[in-house]
Specification:
Elements (H helix, E strand, L loop, with lengths): L1 H20 L9 H49 L39 H28 L4 H32 L9 H9 L12 H5 L8 H10 L11 E4 L5 E4 L4 H25 L8 H9 L5 H5 L18 H7 L1 H13 L4 H5 L1 H9 L7
Antiparallel strand pairs: 1-2
Helix pairs in contact: 3-7, 3-8, 4-5, 4-8, 7-8
Length: 380
């Protein structure tokens, strides 16, 4: 019994202590303690606010430094001299890294190029034209053989082929001029120097007038030279299936003459003349940048007759964004090509194919928008 009361007393004491231990104690805070606590809380808030302000200031400083660094890099990139090897080299105009000369000062764009005619250039040009003359003469002789020695028939056919070749050379010069003006740069394989020369020509068009004949045309001997006409002559040879196509030609003498228009003589003659005119187109082009007093009288006559590209028609090409009047042999095809929108159609197809925009688009966003809408013809 005594043990029972003792155990009960101990349990009661432990229960009371447990309740005390697990019951929150109400603390009476004196006025001095309340003031101290408030100051402590306010100080904590002030400390936290100071840390945030410092962090914000640091972030702003780093942002400004980053922007300054970006501006510095951009400025340096803008100040870096670009060259004809850059994709940003658009016609060598403002923003392409070139300083456009004032007046009629010559400006050579391609590195290593010169206005001085070299013996190598003379040799290349002489050999090329001699080769073309050889192929043309051989073709006429073979044609004479086909007509059984009829000089009149041979002359008429040869003249017809030459005139056709002259017209197609004008068209070809336009396609070639358009392509090198709008696509590629100085790093383009094989054609890089030609592309850079054509595009850079727009920065100082008069530079071409300072070039001698061989210095002016020798670059075009690369795509239109002897290897090209030799390959064509082989393809058009009698052993090639092209020789199986016959065309009948009605002569003035009212006799029929079977002429193989698509075999060796006529095809080779056509392309020999075509390639020679394409090379000469750069010289015809040069004449269009010269005044009448600077060119011989016979050159002025050719321009007046429309055989060679005139000054006024070609001047239209040198109006930004340089989107028309590309033909530089006679200019005969320019109006038809520009009105039909042929080159805009080509640019649209190329863009759909590989996503590459023409240089003319880069200079004129409205031209780009019109072309993408399918409005190909140039405004008159």
């Amino acid at each position: 019994m005594k043990f029972f009361f003792t155990s009960t007393a101990i349990a009661a004491v432990m229960s009371k202590q447990s309740c005390t231990a697990f019951t929150p104690t109400k603390t009476v805070v004196s006025p001095n303690q309340s003031t101290y606590a408030a100051k402590t809380l306010k100080g904590g808030l002030q400390l936290r606010s100071t840390l945030i302000d410092e962090a914000d200031a640091t972030t702003q400083r780093l942002t400004k430094e980053k922007e300054s660094h970006h501006d510095y890099i951009s400025q340096n990139n803008n100040n870096m001299k670009k060259s004809y090897l850059d994709d940003g080299f658009v016609f060598g105009l403002d923003g392409s890294g070139l300083e456009r000369p004032r007046g009629k000062e010559a400006s050579v764009v391609v590195e290593g190029d010169s206005l001085e005619t070299t013996p190598q250039q003379v040799g290349i040009v002489f050999a090329t034209f001699a080769g073309h003359a050889f192929f043309a003469a051989s073709s006429i002789l073979n044609l004479l053989s086909q007509t059984d020695g009829d000089i009149g028939t041979t002359s008429l056919i040869s003249l017809s082929v030459i005139i056709t070749s002259w017209i197609m050379a004008d068209f070809g010069s336009g396609v070639f001029h358009w392509s090198v003006d709008n696509y590629g740069n100085g790093k383009t394989p094989i054609m890089g120097n030609i592309i850079a020369a054509f595009q850079g020509h727009h920065s100082a068009p008069w530079t071409i007038t300072y070039r001698g004949f061989s210095n002016n045309v020798w670059k075009l001997c690369i795509p239109f030279g002897i290897p090209t006409i030799t390959a064509i002559n082989y393809i058009a040879g009698p052993e090639n299936p092209m020789g199986a196509c016959k065309c009948w030609y009605y002569m003035i003498s009212y006799t029929w003459c079977s002429i193989d228009w698509f075999s060796f003589p006529t095809v080779t003659l056509f392309f020999a003349v075509f390639c020679a005119i394409e090379i000469m187109s750069q010289e015809l082009h040069k004449w269009s940048h010269m005044t009448k007093s600077e060119t011989p009288a016979w050159v002025n006559t050719l321009q007046d007759l429309g055989i060679s590209i005139g000054r006024v028609p070609h001047a239209k090409h040198h109006i930004a964004p340089y989107d028309g009047n590309y033909c530089i042999v006679s200019g005969l095809c320019n109006e038809a090509l520009d009105k039909s929108g042929f080159f805009r159609w080509m640019e649209h197809k190329i863009y759909e194919w590989n996503g590459v925009e023409s240089n003319a688009w880069k200079l004129d966003p409205e031209l780009r928008a019109r072309t993408l809408r399918g409005d190909y013809s140039l405004p008159q």
